Amino acid sequence: MVGIKLDYTKINNKITKNKKIMFRRRKNFTDLFSEFDSMFSQFDSIFEGTSPKTLKEEGTDELGDWSKETYKSEDGSIYITNFVRTSSSGQPRKIGTLEQLKMKLQESIENENFEEAVKLRHQIKTFESNKEKINKLDSELKESIKEQNFERAVELRDEIKKLKS
Cα–Cα distance between 128 and 156 in angstroms, integer? Predict the structure, then answer.
């Protein structure tokens, strides 16, 4: 049997040295942000003193208005794009269930998924035929929530879900 003699002081010194290396790079937020600023200041110098080429696009879709601005450096090596979405009411417009179903129907027709289109068409017809009842139940639901009658509110919610499906 061969005996192995370990020098524990060397092992401990090596562990201590590795810990110092591992934990010595701690930095506070000020140092981190100054490194971040210095890293990204190189982009400022690219556009400094020049007029970058700007491409602006604007449009409107189901979620509201949008605008897109793209800045391009003179040599074309860097592009910076800003995309902003707004809506007329200041809040994103919520798409109703009926609108969602119609959009899905159109998409399934375009993709030639006719089985899905038939199911969606049926859901749309059911939804439209139950619309008055759903509106009545919805107003009852709001009233029961206002009165803090949550048990009734849960029942109404479930009934509305059944009618919508």
Answer: 19
Q: How many CA atoms lie within 13 A of 37 on its CB side?
A: 6
- Tokens linked to 80: 């910076």
Here the tokens at position 113 are 């998924």
Tally of residues, the chain:
165
Strands 53-61 and 64-72, sheet pairing: antiparallel
pTM of the model: 0.33
Cβ neighbours around 156 below 10 Å, total: 21
Q: Which residues of 90-108 are buried (b: 16+ CB within 10 A; e: fewer)?
A: eeeeeeeeeeebbebbeeb
Distances (CA, A) of 105 to 62, 63, 117, 152: 16, 19, 5, 34
CB-based contact 131:164 (threshold 8 Å) = no
Residues 68-111 have pLDDT tens digits of 888 887 777 777 788 888 765 544 444 557 788 888 888 888 88
Contacts 24+ apart (CB under 8 A), 44-53: 46/73, 46/77, 46/78, 47/71, 47/73, 50/74
